[in-house]
Amino acid sequence: MPGISMTVNGKPVSGEVEGRTLLVQFLREDLGLTGTHVGCDTSQCGACTVLVNGESVKACTMLAATADGAQVRTIEGEAKGGAMSVVQAAFQEHHGLQCGFCTPGMVMSITDLLRVNAEPSEAQVREWLKGNICRCTGYHNIVKAALAAAAELRAQPVAAE
């Protein structure tokens, strides 16, 4: 079995995987990061969304070996020092979740959206989330949470480099 190494949530990890092992399986089964959910096994629901090298990816469609050397961030990597990320806090404040199953994938997708578009419109948020399915909320509060997170992030002072 080939060995792989990557950085997950800021920590170097490695393991041996079969060639057919999916990234979602490696994260959940080998690393114990169960916040990345498996919802459909067909890449349609988005519950398995993680960030690979900063971009959102459905981890059920990516072979773990393909992520060799990559920077991977899962929902577990969003909270820093016990404090929720801006997107997570917005989901809580605006009731952007009900059962919570889709929430990790939604949070990771919105995090990526706000990376590429700091001021999305409601229509742009809805378009971006086409690859994420929520069976509970009707999306209204998820969209409100995304727009609130965008506003919060724009209001934060820019860190000096």
Q: What's the layout of helices and strands?
A:
Layout (H helix, E strand, L loop, with lengths): L2 E6 L2 E6 L6 H8 L18 E4 L2 E4 L12 E3 L12 H8 L9 H14 L5 H7 L11 H16 L6
Parallel strand pairs: 1-5
Antiparallel strand pairs: 1-2, 3-4, 3-5
Helix pairs in contact: 2-5
Question: Can you walk me through this structure?
Answer:
The protein has helices spanning 23-30, 86-93, 103-116, 122-128, 140-155, and strands spanning 3-8, 11-16, 49-52, 55-58, 71-73. The protein is of the alpha+beta class and 161 residues long. The protein folds into two domains: 3-77, Ubiquitin-like (UB roll) (Roll); 86-155, [2Fe-2S]-binding domain (DNA polymerase, domain 1), CATH 1.10.150. It has a five-stranded mixed β-sheet, covered by helices on one side. It is globular. The mean pLDDT is 94.
